[in-house]
Amino acid sequence: MHVRQLKVEGVVEFSPEIHRDRRGTFVSAFSGEALAAHIGRSAFAAVQLGCSTSRRGTVRGIHFTRCPPGMAKYVCCLAGEAQDFVVDLRKGSPTFGCWDTTRLSGATKRALYIPVGVGHGFAALRDDTLVAYMMSTGYVPADELALSAFDPVLALPLPDAREAVLSERDRTAPTLKELDEQGLLPDYTEARRLDAAL
């Protein structure tokens, strides 16, 4: 498995080897051993597996979880194609406010480990894009927050907001500055502590 550290501290991209024969393909899209080798501890125990299907032009996120409780994710695109984004929301982090992007697709089965306190989102580039999320904690709506993917300070390379397909929550999500003013951004030290305890 090829591994690459993204610009956001703690976010790791995994590109698995795809085995092909006349029947089709086989791939190990997740390897606990590979993850453990690159995050410096045993891999987190997944508590929930979530899947979303999106039509072309859909933008989901940027989503993150209050700290505490915090949530780490392992994200993989199983079908279709998505431009994936991670944003460091951890106040005090050496990469705070920094973002990175990568292309996830059903063809490559590339995946990301996203630590506690890092925001995640994507833009679906094809109809029926299927993204799977292994999560370290269960989904609790009251703990889930969103950052505007169209925050002009971040300037993520996304389709025009007027043409994007968004949920109401994502369409009205606050900017990074507004989240900071509301005291909703994760603390770096606390997020790292929660991530290490998974």
From TrEMBL:
Q: Which GO terms describe its biological process?
A: dTDP-rhamnose biosynthetic process; polysaccharide biosynthetic process
Q: Which InterPro entries match?
A: RmlC-like, RmlC-like_jellyroll, RmlC_Cupin_sf
Note the Pfam families from the entry. Answer: dTDP_sugar_isom
The active site of this protein is located at: 63 (proton acceptor), 133 (proton donor)
Q: Which UniProt keywords apply?
A: Isomerase
**Site entry: Participates in a stacking interaction with the thymidine ring of dTDP-4-oxo-6-deoxyglucose:** 139
Q: What is this protein called?
A: dTDP-4-dehydrorhamnose 3,5-epimerase
Q: What is the lineage of its organism?
A: Bacteria, Bacillati, Actinomycetota, Actinomycetes, Kitasatosporales
